[in-house]
Amino acid sequence: MKRLILMRHAKSDWSGHVSSDHDRPLNKRGRHSADALGAWLREIDIQPDTVLCSSAERTHETLALLKVAEDAAVDFTRALYLASAGEILAQLHRAEGETVLMLGHNPGISAFAQMILSAPPEGEDFLRYPTGATVIAEFDVESWADVAWYSGTLRHFMIPRRLPGMA
């Protein structure tokens, strides 16, 4: 059984003080959301042993603030920066470990979340996959290379505003 933590980066800063989209950091709300998401993951006792993370600044920062991957093998890759659903699946296929955290961006991560689950949750929040949105899914496979579309079983879906202190 493999477990995937699929997370969109936390809210980024659009104030325009950086030279490129790739270099945008989190804003204050995003930093608070990432911290709260990390607390939630620790509370439900789910921590990755492998992380596949976009190379963008906002995903780096989100990962650091989660404080759940200190012992995980981490791969920062440009391939997840604004990746399509198909590219995200290709990156997942090369993963190792039992529990993988993938940190990426919309619109690809939203499309991937919709296509990877056998029964996605109902509602606008899932369809929008807002910043910080997180799916935890399980796959009955021996290898990540065997994961196919519509094969994941949803275990949790969380967005930051549902967490304590985030309303």
Give the secondary structure arrangement, pairings included:
Elements: E1 2-8, H1 28-43, E2 50-54, H2 57-66, E3 73-77, H3 85-93, E4 99-104, H4 108-116, H5 124-128, E5 134-139, E6 153-158
Helix pairs in contact: 1-2, 3-4
In short:
By secondary structure, this protein is an alpha/beta fold. The chain has helices at residues 28-43, 57-66, 85-93, 108-116, 124-128, and strands at residues 2-8, 50-54, 73-77, 99-104, 134-139, 153-158. The chain has a six-stranded mixed β-sheet with strand order 3-2-4-1-5-6, with helices on both faces.
Question: Keywords for this structure?
Answer:
single chain; 167 residues; alpha/beta; Rossmann fold; 5 helices
